[in-house]
Design a protein that fits this description.
The protein is an alpha/beta fold and about 260 residues long. About 40% of the residues lie in helices and about 20% in strands. The chain has helices spanning about 1-20, 50-60, 80-85, 100-110, 145-155, 175-185, 195-215, 225-230, 235-240, and strands at about 70-75, 90-95, 115-120, 130-140, 160-170, 190-195, 245-255. Strands 3-2-1-4-5-7-6 form a seven-stranded mixed sheet, sandwiched between helices. The mean pLDDT is about 90.
């Protein structure tokens, strides 16, 4: 019951941000990545989203992206896929998300970029078999009801030899189940890494900017809830990462 209520809470926040963010100030909704405060080179317009971008950069550079056909399942408000498209030069980028509002936003906000955005369900991907070289899933799967079905669908749409790049968080008592689900899938495991310390570092460094957005976009009586959603330093979510009650995982799997 507690996890279902938590899922409803996060779904409401996703909807709320999509509704109130009229100036497109929130294009990323992941927790970010930083390692020893190393900073990748970014255009000035991308600097405000540095730590969220660095998560995408870290995972996307783990396989060859240039000239490839890529799909992001759970693309949200499109910031990560836009970064990959502009900096890493795939041949074709496609983003899919369950939220109609998110897809409408992406189609409008990234209309000048060569990205295809589609509304759809991660459990039933509306694509032919064997058409993508790389499938990406960033901080989205914790809300999926049927991970096994999702993994099966990703496997189906990947070309033989294609890669599935998967990163997300789980409560520590859920790790064994997730690893079993991945092991029981048809994928070959290439890499499995806990990156919690690097996510926590990013959260600490990005907390001032995240708190500014919370204060700007959210009514005062909801500030604490907003900070928890954003995992700002001192929030319950942040503290759970710090205590390693929540772990952040990164996987590379191959078909």
């Amino acid at each position: 019951m507690k996890e279902k209520l938590k899922d409803v809470f996060f779904r409401i926040w996703y909807w709320y941000i999509s509704t109130v963010d009229k100036k497109a100030e929130v294009t990323f909704m992941n927790y970010g990545y930083s390692r020893d405060n190393h900073q990748i080179k970014l255009d000035e317009k991308d600097e405000k989203d540095r730590y969220s971008i660095q998560l995408y950069d870290f995972i996307a550079r783990s396989v060859a992206i240039q000239g490839k056909e890529i799909l992001e399942v759970g693309c949200g408000r499109g910031g990560g896929l836009s970064y990959i498209n502009r900096y890493l030069s795939p041949n074709l980028a496609t983003g899919l998300d369950l939220s109609k509002k998110a897809i409408e936003f992406c189609k409008k906000h990234y209309s000048k970029e060569r990205i295809k955005f589609i509304q759809g369900n991660a459990h039933s991907l509306n694509f032919q078999d064997n058409i993508f070289d790389v499938v990406i899933n960033v901080e989205s799967s914790h809300r999926y009801a049927e991970i096994d079905k999702f993994l099966s669908e990703v496997y189906r749409v990947l070309k033989p030899g294609g890669f599935f790049i998967f990163t997300d968080f789980r409560h520590k008592n859920e790790l064994e189940k997730l690893n079993a689900q991945l092991e029981n899938s048809d994928f070959n495991l290439v890499k499995n890494e806990l990156i919690t310390p690097h996510v926590l570092e990013a959260l600490k460094l990005s907390s001032p900017e995240r708190e500014n957005l919370v204060h700007k976009l959210i009514p005062k009586f909801l500030h604490n809830s907003g900070k928890n959603f954003a995992a700002t330093e001192g929030s319950d979510t942040y503290n759970k990462f710090a205590a390693r009650e929540l772990e952040y995982l990164f996987y590379i799997l191959m078909k």
